[in-house]
Every structure is written in C-alpha cells, then in structure tokens.
C-alpha cells in the first residue's frame, strides 16, 4: 500500500546529474501514487523539483567542511520513519535512518551512460528518460517571453569550466548558418534564444553571443528551473555545451544537440526523446573542444532538426505538475 508512503530521495548537488535522476524519481512516483517525497539536493538544483507532484519538502544540502553537510541532512531526516530511502550520492546516511527499504547507488566510474547506471538501481532496462515538471504559470510566462508564431533556436554558450566551452564566435556562426538554412529550406525564420545560468560569470560568458546576434532573446540568469524548462519546450531546437541546461533541454523534449570536448559523451550525453551529442575529434575525455568545427556542428544540428520534424516545439498540456518528457 503506497498511499501515504514516505520517500527520501537524495540526488546530486550538480544540476545535470539531478536532471538525469528525474526519470528514476518519476518511476517511483508512478509506482507509489500518493507517496510523500522529500528531495535532498544541492542549491543549484533545488528549484528543479518545485512543480513535482507529491513533493512534501526539499532539503537544500550546502557543502560544508569535513562533510558536516551530511550530519545536517541526518538531523533533518532522523525524526521520520521512511518507507523508502534512495541515495544517489552513495553516502552512508540512510544506514543511520529508520527505513523499511534502502537503495544506495555506489560511486566510482563506470562504463556506459549515466542514465543506465541510475536505471539499474531499480533493475530498469532500458532506463527511464529524464523528465521536467512545470506548472501552468511557468508555461504562461514562457509563452509571454517566447510568443507563438516564431520558431525559436535555443543556444547555451556557457558551462561550469572553461574546457567545456565552445568558442562564442562559433556559436554565432552556427546560429547565422542555421537561420540561413531555415529560410532556404522554406521553414521560415529561426530566431535565437540565449540561455545561461545565474551569476555575473555566466552573464559574461553569454555576452559576446548576445552582442553578435542582435535579434536574439536574452533568456538567461533569473528564471527558476521549471520556467527555464518551459522556455526550452517552446524551442524548435537547442545547441549548447555539456551543461545542466543541455540536460534540462533534453528532459523537456526539445531536440537537443550537446557539444563535447574533454568530457565523456558516452556517459553524460543528453538523454531525451530527441537528443544527440557531437564530440571534438580525439580521445574521449581529452579532446579540446576547440577542435569541434562549425561545419561539423552545423551538419549535426540540421540532421537533428530534420529528424525532429515540424512538431518540435509543440507545448504539452497544462495539467499541474505536467511531466514534459517521455519515460521509456
């Protein structure tokens, strides 16, 4: 009997990993209707779960010296008798909580996609694809920012470290080439939307792209994650660096092309109903992203948009807490 079931779900401090874990969480929600779920995650990912049905509480885990953040989390959770504890961080914390069942994902580098590792925790093959949850207000705001009647191309030119960042001038050249292709192919104009994370550093990384694309919409910095997901769902396609935004786009069902240099595409490629990655030439994990040419990305982007077809960018229904992606 799962009604009233209490679930503790400990997921990542990083946005990309937290997004990848949503497919597993969505399966648990389907298996246990009426369950009350407590999410434990880092501050960057916290708003990702705001519109999730069944969410009782989000505990923001802020890293502290000597791993004292785990002690704080234990104090927040020890007073509850949990029916299920899922720990994707591989910590020992759930062993010291009252729980009927525990699922602990062990650490260490593994071969294959991260979503497959997550799915294996529940014995799921193929693994569930990530999802995003949005509320009607999120979608209404997204429609106001990106109105109907325009085809939108999302660009995400930032990342959490410099080795992942494709040069800004190449994003500009790519956007201009895709705009020209769309007109030549008879699809109509394609207008860029530039997305980036909060903070001055992210804004500075995105600034050269915005400056060189005067028709671009600046959609970065100050939106909660469900609102960002709703913006992405309105776009006909997404091209961006290996980042949390890339994973959020794929989870939203937007045709997504992720760009990879010295990061592992086989493990952290975008997972979604229409998502692909393109990697710089060279050994995985060591190839400089500067080796990724505009022509290569352009071909991949055109192939992706052609495969997605005219339905790309259609908006899902307005049910509260709508999960905007498909679970395999």
From TrEMBL:
GO terms for biological process: lipopolysaccharide core region biosynthetic process. GO terms for molecular function: ADP-heptose-lipopolysaccharide heptosyltransferase activity. Keywords: Glycosyltransferase, Transferase. Transmembrane segments: none annotated. GO terms for cellular component: cytosol. It comes from the Bacteria. SUPFAM superfamilies: UDP-Glycosyltransferase/glycogen phosphorylase. CDD domains: GT9_LPS_heptosyltransferase. This is Putative glycosyl transferase. The lineage of its organism: Bacteria, Pseudomonadati, Pseudomonadota, Alphaproteobacteria, Acetobacterales.
